[in-house]
What we know:
By secondary structure, the protein is α+β, with helices and mostly antiparallel strands.
Amino acid sequence: MGIDLRRLPNLDYPIVRSQYTGLDLPWGSEIILEGVIKGRLREMEGPFGEFTGHYSGARRMPVVEITRMSYRQNPLFEHLYLGMPWTEIDYLMGVNTSAPLYVQLKQNFPEIVAVNALYTHGLVVVISTKVRYGGFAKAVGLRAITTPHGLGYAKVVIVVDETIDPFDLNQVMWAISTKMHPAHDLVTIPGLSVLPLDPGSDPVGITHKLVIDATTPVAPETRGHYDQPLDSPMGTKDWEKRLQEMLHGR
Length: 250
């Protein structure tokens, strides 16, 4: 391949130096393209289908002149299908959107239970949290849109109780329909940043963001009447166990 196999020091990942260009290259790559970025030269690129389910449009982008291609014998070319959700990239990106938001929020709010930012890379985020006091859920939602990830994504944040599974949309929709009061629980922040690929942004890269508080009101918020939640009758689990045993012939 024309590559010096000596590794450079003090690097966690093995790096080699190309003897043709002197560039640092990741050792073990399937395919390596080396080239020259043409100064002050731009050409139209796109449009491309994006994770939002819309085309991104065309843009003037830098031009690279490829001077050398190196590859393994029978190299593997990895790629992902990207388009209207859900596609392969959505499943793979789920961890990269949910986990960082969870970690970032947990630093300020240890009450956070779980974060679901799977949908369109986190443009919609569902957060399950314990509620310390009235207005707490709104504070969580506002923090979510100002995290490193939320600044460019997190267009709609839905906050639910710790008893709600944020990955179960049936539970989330129930929480919105019964806990959320449109006059008290919607917080709209105008003119915030969002990734330019959001087709709803206007102008491009700017949008209003929305926090939906779908948690049970606690003091000093005393509105509504949530003191009689529906629960399973006593002995339900025992009957479920007996019925399961009957169905399986035990």
